[in-house]
Write a structure and sequence with these properties.
Chain lengths: 338, 1110
């Protein structure tokens, strides 16, 4: 645990370094009201600072009231004139990401749509959150397994300039891969995922691809290969906390598949149960923990739940358990919008 | 094992050098020459030319040449301004520094600093170079080990309030570095003190934040010091802070990365040396977190590429913007170029390090292995073999991967890996250890011939075995021969070993095992000699207890046996080791008792011979006056025999009771007691003994056998010998009276004048006596029966207790076996009656049995236990199986299906109930049960029920591919305990339905020709073979082949009417429609419909209609 003093320092530092929502035009910078910041009224309304610019989405303009020599003058600039956006991650986008992590793709989709709509006129402007919101939407659609909507969105998204960015292109390829996986084209998914793995370098994408490949191997009943693929996620991408429970769950299922009376000595059922136990203990609020509880025999489920409570109350870690760990600071920085 | 090599790339050094070089530009003109040249076109000043030449040489890193030119310039320049002299002095010093001529560099730098208080003034970019000169001088001092001088200089800079802040920060950093360097070859304590001092200095350097490159440099150093002192928490926190402020330059990225590795290594080292287990785990976890957080080659390579691309663009932009750069612009361009070169250099160094990714995987694998995560470790090491086969530490990777494979129970793979390693790296230093593991795995699995083969293979194929390993392998081969009871070859191997390795560390063991070889070959004379030799060499050796025991056996084994000597040695043994609680002695104690028992039995056998001889003597002398004498002799021998048999039984019982850790001895001695005790009517003793053994461990694989003996003995206990004795006593009592009465009748009948009534009266007395005898005997019989019933009840109670003990434990699969046992016992009590007939009043019926079963299972007490209730229904279902009431079985199993979730049941119930549901057509519930087995109990003995049942359901749903996949999976994984035939039959049908006729035919033919499977499936396979031929037929020959199979089916397998009917009907249709033989078809259908079993089948009904249409 980080000492409180240091935490305070970090908070102060964060406050000092956080920049306000700003649009950069040629030769000037305008601070803009954040439309996602709402007051406490019922229903809540956006907080408006009269000194800051207000976006008029209908006209596609930004209006700002300026006091010049005692006179209030309304200045207007077109959104198309914005050359750069300086905007901290919108709260709704953060919420969308959290929704994804919590296994609430429908809510994530709502939140991402709001951000997408706002940044639509600025989608190709440096600093815009449009691409990030699009990727979250893609992820949410994928998790909702709404193949028709995913196909439709992909068809539009692929035509965008952003789709040429290598990482975005890979995400699109990944989404297409997921569609194929759901169609049951497992052999093709395994082949393509293997090819993609050699191309991508982000650890998040690597982990996701391993998951996709593992899922297809599992569906194709190639349990040993599935186990090896799933376990690469906790072994090599341990900081991708979102993926770990999924990988552990997949590995547990793969071990179940590998089990047979001839391999009884390897105690694969116990190994599988151990992974399920780890999910419950280490990722208690995840969707996978709920799934793991269903897969565990009743007696072991009760034990896992009891141990989880003990650990949550500060008890010692059982042998072999590796708690979820946060991402490293350097990797956490989201500067992709710059 | 910790990785010894350093992994820092010495980036700290590189970075410092980069700073120094970057701030030491060489470009410029000698602007401070006394007078500028009148025109640019005019002849250039020779001094200026000389300076440019020196400058060029310096730029080309020809420092020696540059030094000579600067010296020449200094000589020729004569009386120039002080600043110019300072420039030349600084240049010379820099050349000497780069030439690594430390003493001269020191002298020149000292001269520069002493003579020119204003340094180079404004010749360069406003920096008078005094600060740099100071740092270079300090570096020169350090290189010569002049630590104190260096530190004194640095202290001055640190204390100088007028010095530039960056210089002061650098001074702190360098001071820390020097403090550490100074302690490099000191003791650990001094080193630690130096690290602490360095931390203090570096904290001052970073006190104002870490927002400049110099401060970040100090912060990096501070992280390093924290790590060295094991202050991981501090190191990690500071590192996170640095990372958060990282400029993203490749130097920082790489350095950050390697620092993370260092922290990981430090944690790993701490874990290795941690005495406390709890801390050790934490340390390994921390190490793992750091290793996992490191970037992979591909990420770093991309960072390098981006940085180089950006820097290249920057250089190009600057060059384009200033085609004729002024000195300051040229300086900036040169700095950018230098940075670019540095980046490329680091990239090249990184590229040259091919081990990077593999090393991370290796470390991760080690941590995981230590954290008892062998499966993950296996995956980590696999990554090395797949992606970095040229890894420099590949031998280590093999070694640890083999360990991981062993830990996860994959011994075959581990052995394959051992062989692969030996083949690929025959000269590696670890080859001996790996070679040993190869055989050790087989030896551990008691596959001795295989182990011997592996060891011999190693001896033949591994060139550089160490002498120690070669010796160990020789020993292991002999030990394997010994373990597989090849006594003669083992003895030969031991003898060779003793000659070859006279001073071997295992000599004691070899001597002992060698003697045992003689012993087990029955060579008692040689055994004695060998054991004597052992006792002589090792009078207090570890095998002495066993040797003494074997010596006793030798006495027993010689001809004639020395029984008294044997017993004496054994009793001495028991006395001497009574208090010895070592595992070996505890395990040997029952063997010693058994030997005593054997010795007494031998004595009893000898006495038995004497008894028999005495009996013959007695019979010969039956009518002689010596009869009493011979009778007394016989009695004496009989008593003696009885006494020694009793002693033998006592000894065997003692052996059994002490054999908890010696299953072999236990098995032998229980076998002897099973022969002796029941014959002597000692059922209670037998029951008590087996109960004691059963209670040792109810989960023991043999517990059921012991329980069975307990039940049987208890039941036998009811028929106590007392009853027979009592009956005999009664008979004897009446015998004399009856004899007298009969004699009286006889006498009366012979006597003259005795009237008929008198005779009748006497006869009546005899009858009365007989009736009294019968009545007395009947009373005893009633008591005997009551006693038997009581004991049977007791036996059932014992069984009931055993079931009740585990009835709530879902995981105890043995409980179902007990339930079946109990149900079978109760079913035997049921008096069967013909269908429809009423049982006799008071007879024990199946209803009674059900009630008793419910009571015995204590289901009322376990109302709250789901699994107990389910087992109750299962028990009733099984009882109905034994009482042949299938409808009751189905009804009870249906209750299980209706009231319980799959997860509340165990595999046995799931499988048997699932099968019953499938047969009854409740496919949904059956599928739930089978799926649960596949999901949760694949290693259960009933896993094949899951595959077979689910495949059958899929086949019924016409999902042939899925059915085939399930069958294939079960067959490939050998999950075929009792459902192989079903699985193969379903597989064949699925293949047939998928039109894979060739494979299907092979499978059906295999079923049809397998003798063990002869039955319904044989007939069904013939029908299917016919059906496939029919489906493929395109001409008469094809149909004829189909007909041939159909005929074989209905002619050979009539009793399976379903398949016979199908075959009849199918053939008839072919005859009528494809082969133009309507008459033949008619005859065949008539024949079919004459068969009672066939005519009412579905095909029979259809055939009737078809026949009418022909």
């Amino acid at each position: 645990m980080r000492p409180p003093l240091l935490l305070t320092a970090f908070v102060l530092l964060a406050a000092a370094t956080s920049s306000a929502q700003t649009f950069v035009f040629k030769g000037e910078r305008w601070e803009i009201n954040d439309p996602f910041k709402l007051d406490n009224s019922i229903p809540p309304k956006p907080v408006v600072d009269s000194k800051k610019g207000i976006i008029n989405m209908v006209k596609g303009t930004v209006d700002r009231t300026s006091n010049q020599a005692g006179f209030e003058v309304v200045l207007t600039r077109k959104l198309s004139e914005v050359t750069e956006v300086i905007w901290p991650m919108p709260a709704r986008l953060q919420e969308a990401q959290n929704n994804i992590n919590r296994g609430e793709p429908a809510k994530a989709l709502d939140n991402a749509e709001a951000v997408l709509k706002f940044f639509e006129p600025l989608k190709n402007v440096p600093g815009s959150w449009w691409v990030k919101a699009s990727l979250i939407k893609l992820d949410a659609l994928d998790r909702l397994e709404n193949d028709a909507a995913t196909n439709s969105f992909l068809a539009t998204f692929e035509k965008e300039q952003a789709a040429k960015q290598p990482e975005v292109a890979t995400q699109i390829q990944l989404a297409r891969l997921m569609l194929r996986a759901r169609k049951g084209e497992h052999d093709a998914v395994i082949r393509e995922a293997t090819e993609l793995l050699a191309k991508v370098d982000s650890s998040e994408l690597q982990a996701r691809l391993h998951l996709t490949k593992g899922n297809s191997l599992l569906a194709a009943k190639k349990y040993e290969a599935a186990m090896n693929t799933y376990l690469r996620v906790p072994v090599f991408f341990g900081s991708e906390t979102e993926m770990i429970p999924k990988a552990l769950l997949g590995a547990a299922r793969a071990f179940r598949g590998m089990d047979s009376p001839a391999l009884r000595d390897q105690k694969l059922e116990a190994v599988s149960n151990r992974y399920l136990y780890d999910i419950i203990v280490s990722f208690p609020v995840s969707k996978e923990a709920e799934e793991a509880k269903k897969l565990l025999p009743p007696e072991e489920r009760a034990k896992a739940e009891a141990d989880q409570k003990k650990i949550a109350a500060g008890g010692p870690l059982p042998e072999g358990v590796m708690l979820a760990k946060p991402k490293l600071a350097a990797e956490e920085k989201v500067e992709a919008n710059r | 094992m910790l990785i010894q090599e350093s992994r820092t790339y010495q980036l700290a050094k590189a970075a410092l050098l980069a700073v120094l070089l970057a701030v030491t530009p060489v470009t410029g003109v000698l602007r401070a020459q006394s007078k500028p040249l009148p025109t640019a076109e005019a002849k250039e000043d020779p001094l200026n030319v000389l300076y440019k030449a020196a400058d060029k040489a310096f730029e080309e890193k020809k420092y020696k040449e540059a030094l000579a030119l600067f010296q020449e310039l200094e000589d020729k320049a004569g009386d120039v301004a002080n600043s110019m002299k300072a420039v030349l002095s600084f240049r010379k010093a820099t050349c000497l520094f780069f030439m690594k001529d430390w003493p001269k560099a020191q002298a020149e730098l000292t001269a520069f600093l002493d003579r020119y208080p204003k340094g180079t003034e404004d010749f360069f970019d406003g920096d008078n170079r005094r600060g740099i000169a100071e740092l270079l001088l300090i570096e020169a001092f350090s290189k010569q080990g002049k630590w104190d001088q260096a530190l004194t200089r640095l202290e001055k800079i640190r204390a100088n309030a007028l010095a530039r802040p960056e210089e002061r920060v650098n001074a702190f950093t360098l001071s820390a570095q020097i403090v550490v360097d100074r302690a490099k070859s000191s003791t650990d304590d001094l080193k630690k003190a130096a690290y602490a001092q360095a931390i203090s200095l570096l904290k001052q350097a970073t006190a104002g934040g870490i927002n400049t490159p110099e401060r970040r440099e100090a912060a990096y150093k501070l992280v390093e010091m924290y790590t060295k002192l094991g202050l991981t928490k501090e190191a990690t926190q500071l590192k996170s802070e640095i990372d958060a402020r990282s400029s993203g330059s490749p130097v920082e990225v790489v350095r950050s990365n390697f620092q993370r590795l260092e922290i990981g290594d430090a944690r790993f080292a701490a874990a290795e040396s941690a005495a406390d287990e709890a801390f050790r785990g934490d340390f390994y976890r921390q190490a793992l977190n750091n290793y996992q957080g490191t970037l992979r080659r591909v990420n770093l390579t991309r960072s390098f590429a981006k940085a180089i691309e950006t820097k290249t663009a920057e250089v190009e932009g600057m060059t384009k913007a200033a085609p004729k750069p002024n000195p300051e612009q040229a300086d900036a361009i040169r700095r950018a170029q230098f940075d670019l070169e540095q980046f490329k250099k680091i990239e090249a160094e990184f590229k040259a390090n091919k081990d990077y990714d593999a090393l991370i995987s290796y470390r991760i694998g080690l941590c995981l292995l230590e954290l008892k995560r062998p499966w993950e470790a296996h995956v980590a090491f696999l990554d090395i073999f797949e992606n970095s086969p040229e890894f420099s530490r590949i031998a280590g990777a093999y070694y640890y991967h083999i360990i991981a494979l062993r830990r996860i129970g994959r011994n075959n793979e581990a052995q394959a890996k051992c062989k692969e390693f030996i083949r690929k790296f025959p000269k590696d230093e670890t080859v001996s250890s790996i070679a040993l593991i190869l055989g050790d795995i087989s030896q551990e699995r008691e596959e001795f011939p295989e182990a011997i083969d592996h060891y011999k293979w190693v001896l033949a194929n591994v060139a550089n075995l160490t002498p120690e390993v070669a010796e160990e392998i020789d020993f292991r081969i002999a030990a394997c021969l010994f373990s597989q009871v090849d006594w003669a070859p083992a003895q030969k191997a031991f003898e060779v070993f003793l000659k070859k390795y006279e001073r071997s560390s295992v000599r004691q063991q070899v001597l002992y095992m060698n003697a045992l070889c003689s012993f087990f070959q029955g060579k008692y004379k040689e055994t004695k000699v060998d054991f004597d030799k052992y006792q002589q060499e090792y009078p207090k050796g570890q095998f002495i207890p066993d040797v003494r025991y074997r010596q006793a056996i030798v006495k027993f084994g010689v001809n004639p046996p020395d029984i008294a000597g044997t017993i004496k040695l054994c009793e001495e043994w028991l006395k001497d080791y009574a208090k010895d609680r070592t595992d070996e002695v505890i395990a040997q104690t029952p063997e010693v008792h058994t030997l005593i028992g054997d010795a007494y039995i031998r004595m009893a056998d000898e006495l038995d011979k004497k008894v028999k001889a005495a009996d013959i003597d007695l019979r010969i002398n039956l009518k002689t006056p010596d009869r009493a004498k011979f009778a007394a002799i016989k009695d004496k021998f009989e008593q003696e025999k009885e006494a020694v048999t009793g002693k033998a039984i006592d000894a065997y019982e003692a052996a059994a009771k002490s054999a908890r850790t010696n299953p072999q001895a236990l098995e032998f001695v229980l076998g002897e007691l099973r022969k002796l005790l029941p014959g002597r009517g000692e059922h209670k003793r037998m029951r008590d003994l087996f109960k004691e053994i059963f209670d040792w461990d109810h989960n023991d694989p043999k517990a059921m056998t012991y329980l069975y003996e307990v039940i049987r003995s208890t039941e036998r206990m009811g028929n106590m010998p007392e009853f027979a004795e009592q009956a005999e006593k009664i008979r004897k009592g009446f015998s004399a009276k009856l004899a007298d009465a009969r004699k009286a009748v006889d006498q009366l009948e012979r006597r003259q004048g005795v009237t008929r009534p008198e005779i009748d009266k006497a006869k009546e007395a005899v009858r009365k006596l007989s009736a009294e005898l019968e009545a007395e005997l009947a009373k005893t019989e009633v008591k005997r029966q009551a006693s038997i019933d009581a004991q049977k009840k007791r036996a059932l109670k014992i069984l009931s207790d055993a079931v009740a003990e585990s009835i709530n434990d879902r995981k105890q699969e043995g409980t179902e076996t007990l339930i079946v046992f109990l149900a079978e016992k109760l079913a035997r009590k049921v008096k069967r009656v013909k269908a429809g007939a009423k049982p006799e009043p008071g007879a024990y019926t199946s209803v009674e049995a059900e009630k008793e079963l419910t009571k015995l299972l204590r289901l009322e007490e376990n109302r709250s236990s789901l699994v107990a209730q389910a087992r109750g229904f299962f028990a009733l279902g099984q009882l109905a199986v034994f009482t042949r009431e299938p409808e009751k079985t189905a009804a009870n199993f249906a209750k299980i299906a209706a009231n319980f979730k799959a997860e509340e049941l165990n595999p046995t119930i799931l499988a048997l109930v699932g099968e019953s549901l499938l047969a009854k057509g409740d496919l949904k519930k059956a599928e739930e049960f089978f799926r649960y087995i596949l999901e949760f109990s694949r290693s259960s003995e009933y896993a094949d029920y899951g595959f077979a049942g689910l495949a059958e359901i899929r086949l019924g749903e016409k999902k042939y591919a899925e059915a085939l996949s399930l069958c294939d999976e079960a067959i490939e994984n050998n999950i075929l305990m009792s459902k192989e035939l079903d699985l193969r039959f379903t597989r064949a049908r699925a293949l047939a339905e998928l039109s894979k006729y060739k494979e299907a035919k092979e499978e059906f033919e295999e079923i049809a020709r397998t003798r063990e499977w002869r039955g319904e499936k044989t007939g069904a396979s013939l029908y299917w073979l016919g059906l496939m031929e029919e489906r493929q037929a395109t001409d008469k020959d094809g149909y004829a082949r189909a007909v041939a199979y159909y005929r074989r089916c209905y002619m050979t397998w009539k009793k399976y009417e379903v398949w016979a009917a199908k075959s009849y009907f199918a053939e008839a249709k072919i005859l009528a429609t494809k082969l133009d033989q309507k008459d033949g078809a008619k005859r065949l259908l008539q024949e079919m419909l004459e068969k009672d079993r066939i005519k009412d089948t579905r095909e029979g009904v259809e055939a009737k209609a078809y026949l009418l249409g022909l």
